[in-house]
Amino acid sequence: MQMDQRNNHLSIVCGCLCILLGAVVLYGWHTQFLPLIQIHSSFVPMQYNTALGFLLCGLGLIFLNFKKNIISVVLGSLVSIVGAINLAQYIWEINTGLDELFMRHYIQVKTSHPGRMAPNTALCFLLSGVALALNHKIHKKIKTITTAITLETLGAIVTGLGLVALAGYIFDLESTYGWGNLTRMAVHTAIGFIILGVGLIIFAAPIIAQYPSPCFPVFIAVGLLIVSFSFWKALNVEEEKNAENLMRQEVDHIKSLLNHIIGQDILSLERVKLRWENRLYSDKEKWLQDTRSYAKDKEELLAVEWVDKNYIVRWIEPLEGNESAQNLDLSFEENRKKTLDFAKSSGVTQLTDIIEFVQGGLGFLSASPIFVEGKFEGFILGVFEVDKLLTPYTPSQKLRGITIQYFNLKDQPEEVFKHKSSNQWRYQTGVGYRGINFGMFVVFEDKFFSTEKSRFSHVIGSSGVLLSIFFSLFVYFNRKSKFHSDNLAQLADERNEMNVEVRNLYNRLENVLEEERKYIAREIHDELGQTLTAIKLDLTWLEKRINVSEPPILDKIKSIYSHLEDSLETVRRVSTELRPQVLDVMGFCEALQWQAEKFMVNTNIKYKLNIEPEGIRLQPELSTDLFRIFQEALTNISRHSQASHVTIGFVENKTAYELCVKDDGVGIDGSRIGHSNSLGLMGMRERALIWKGHVEIKGVVGEGTQLKVKIPKLNNDK
Fold it and tell me: Where does the pLDDT of residue 18 fall: very low under 50, low under 70, confident under 90, or very high at 90 and above?
């Protein structure tokens, strides 16, 4: 009951904290006090509707604890409807007007829609509202356990989502508190959901604990799964972002490399143009010899051509493979003619768009106009194949897992990432240089990311699943073990209570038996003994007054005297065995001495008695129980021990009385000490337990047996 009240108070505290959080943020919106809305200028603000949701959830949780079911259901239904509407707005991309219904928003940091709560926030409110709305069944006793488990599970999901979002702020993992490019969950929103979820779990815990047998902790399994799955997903998203950044950096490097290669190639051809203009080529052979090294060293350079002033290709190096371009009139195609015209008029090298060559292939032309002493003498034309621009770097790129494909392009394309398969990414982009544009597909194989990719996210996911299973099973079996141990403890307590009752009954029975023994001994001694003594006196009186001369009569009188003496002796013996008068008259120590003497006479077993200190006085009831234990010990010695000597000791110290009886007989087997058939030993133990004492019996076969009784002096009451 105390635990239930404590849980109830903690759940109410959680509700109050949610109300406080919502009220503080609402105040911040109305007063435009930004630190209450947005903890940091770079953080997401808590939306106005989110603050209202916390206010309603806190009230619902408090009313739920006070069993105001109808109010709790109404508040929970409102919250779940608001959460569902916000989720629907994201899914179907609609605007219901709910976002700015109560407040026009003036903070939009990391907010995709002004005033709209984050989708994970909407989901948490939907689950919290459902939990509050359904819990009227708990108080109606309709499927109480099922409903309580559902409540606990929903609370665990809400807590898990809040923990994941808060951890995202701590470890700078934006994808944990934001889904895609949508509005993010604010940091104090995450804290609020942790408090709200814990409040729901605490409320449900006592209801589940009332169930007769322990239930599987579904909320732990679900909560850990939510946390591990969220972290796994967030780490994957972060890994993809890192991969995209890495690919973008590589593509930028490839672009700059292409620009550098094209620029260097054009500079080389412009040097050929300058040699022409400086009259360094006296004939065609010298020109071919000079340009041959350029064409040979640069694989992307399909051919170097001299085009005359009529735009006809006259010289080609190399000619092999380019025969179709020999004597080609370049004015046949508008793009080529336009580029040549512009180069001639501007006097500067110009590039064509991406074209298809007559000799086959895709690429572009560079046209460097030749002017000798102001006279136009044609062009130095470079024919560049796009596919071979990065030929020197292709082997190393393939080793790194990069493949490049080019395509014709008029306009600069949008950069697009495409995850083609599980082990391949494609990056589409455009390359532009001095007016030419061509498209480029860069394919990244999985090995490109070998240094960046990590198994950590998969470890988090799989270990989270295993942890949720194992920890839930651990808690379940721990609860089950505690349940069984509590049952065993309860049974043990009940048994102890029964033992106490049995012992009390045994005590009462022994007291009654002792009283009966005293009564019977007194009656036998007083009544029967006196009667026999009176008969003997009467017989003596008759003997004096009757002339006894006949032998038969004399013999009969002697026989009657003999029977009377035997009867009186029997009366004394029986009354003494039932209750020794020395125990009542002289005390326990004297009774011990008397019983030992009698034992030696009857069994011829010698004894040694030691009492320290002398004159010990005990309570009459304790004296009786110790004397009966001593009698039973001597009886066992006479029956079983075959002893010749017995040592008896009775000691009183500051804390206890100790009675010790030790013989030198055959000893007792240890298996017989606690045997259930040893009624005498059991009786001795019960008598000692009445006085909160104990009996200790030690025996070694062939070396004798020792019985030791210890009765504490404190609280020495039955």
Answer: very high
| Whether 508 and 437 share a structural domain | no
β-sheet bridge partners, residue 379: 307, 369
Render pLDDT for 498-511 as a digit per residue (tens, 0 to 9).
877 776 776 677 66
Do 497 and 445 fall within a single domain?
no
User: Residue 3 has what pLDDT?
Assistant: 47
The residue from 534, 567, 600 where one domain ends is 567
CA distance 619 to 627: 12
Q: What's the confidence (pLDDT) of residue 509?
A: 72
Query: Does 6 reside within a domain?
Result: yes
Instruction: Return the DSSP state at 329.
Output: B
Helix axes 119-134, 69-92, angle to 10 degrees: 150
Confidence check: pLDDT of 135 > 90: no
**Residues 6 or more apart whose Cβ sits within 8 Å of residue 382:** 265, 266, 269, 301, 303, 304, 305, 365, 366, 368
Distance CA(361)–CA(10), nearest Å, equals 77
pLDDT value at 333 more than 50: yes
Structural domain boundaries enclosing 643: 583-712
- Residue 25 CB contacts under 8 Å (≥ 6 apart), including other chains: 36, 37, 46, 48, 50, 51, 54, 188
Question: Residue 597 pLDDT more than 80?
Answer: yes
Same domain, 547 and 450: no
Residues 555-585 have pLDDT tens digits of 777 777 777 777 767 766 666 666 566 566 6
Residue 237 in domain: no
Backbone CA torsion sign across 617, 618, 623, 626: negative
What does the pLDDT average to over 678-698?
A: 79
Q: What is the average pLDDT score of the chain?
A: 79
Q: Are residues 36 and 79 in the same domain?
A: yes
In a domain, 240, yes or no: no
17: pLDDT strictly greater than 90: yes
> Computed from CA positions of residues 591, 601, 561, 556, in that sequence, does the dihedral angle turn out positive or negative?
positive
Count up the domains in the chain and report the number.
4
3-state secondary structure of 34: helix
Nearest of 408, 396, 302 to residue 354 by alpha carbon: 408
Same domain, yes or no: 206 and 296: no
The alpha-carbon radius of gyration of the chain (Å, integer) is: 55
Find the mean pLDDT for residues 617-641: 81
The tokens of 709 are what?
Answer: 């009784």
Which residues contact residue 670 at a Cβ distance below 8 angstroms, ignoring those fewer than 6 apart?
A: 699
Would the pLDDT of 410 be above 60? no
Tell me, yes or no, whether 465 lies in a domain: no
User: Could you give the CA distance from residue 344 to residue 350 in angstroms, rounded to a whole number?
Assistant: 9
| Residues 92, 180 within the same domain | yes
This prediction's pTM = 0.58
Q: Which of 324, 340, 416 is nearest to 378 (CA)?
A: 340
Which amino acid makes up residue 605? I
Q: CB within 8 A of 19, min separation 6: which ones?
A: 54, 55, 58, 59, 62
DSSP 485-502: HHHHHHHHHHHHHHHHHH
Query: 228 vs 123, 165, 191, 241, CA distance in Å?
Result: 18, 12, 18, 20
